[in-house]
Specification:
By secondary structure, this protein is α+β, with helices and mostly antiparallel strands. The protein contains two helices and five strands. Bound molecules: guanosine-5'-monophosphate and zinc ion (ZN).
Length: 113
């Protein structure tokens, strides 16, 4: 998929509105439009790539940066008691947006199914 057709690139560029909770030059965190938990945020790198398998060295550094940032962003947005991270990859996982993103789920006791 071309970057130009990517929903999350459009959200990053502000062409599609979103409820942002954190932004810096490397990443954006916004509320999922169809929350699957009391708190459901999406953390996206500003650099477009689809899969962990596609990631180059600088994108891997970017992911590390995001993982370092996420605990405080989660705590500031209602996940003081914990959270779960999910990265859906490919068809079997039901990945529907082909720009790598980390789901941050919390704000409640999370079921494990
Ligand atoms: P995936 O299924 O690819 O792991 O996750 C995509 C997520 O993006 C879903 O949880 C879905 O609810 C969310 N989503 C899809 N379209 C939009 C949108 O336009 N705005 C926001 N904020 N979230 C979206
Ligand atoms: Zn994108």
């Amino acid at each position: 998929m071309l970057k130009e057709d990517c929903l999350f690139c459009k959200i990053i560029e502000g062409k599609i509105p979103s409820t942002k909770v954190y932004e810096d030059d490397k990443m954006l965190v916004f509320k999922d439009i169809e929350p699957k938990a009391k708190v459901h945020l999406l953390a996206v790198p500003k650099d477009h790539f689809k899969l962990l398998a596609d990631m180059n060295a600088s994108q891997a550094e970017l992911l590390k940066y995001m993982l370092e940032k996420i605990p405080s962003i989660a705590a500031e947005n209602g996940c003081e008691k914990g959270f779960r991270l999910v990265i859906n990859q490919g068809e079997d996982a039901g990945q529907s947006v082909f720009h790598l993103h980390i789901h941050i789920l919390g704000g409640q006791t999370l079921p494990w199914e």
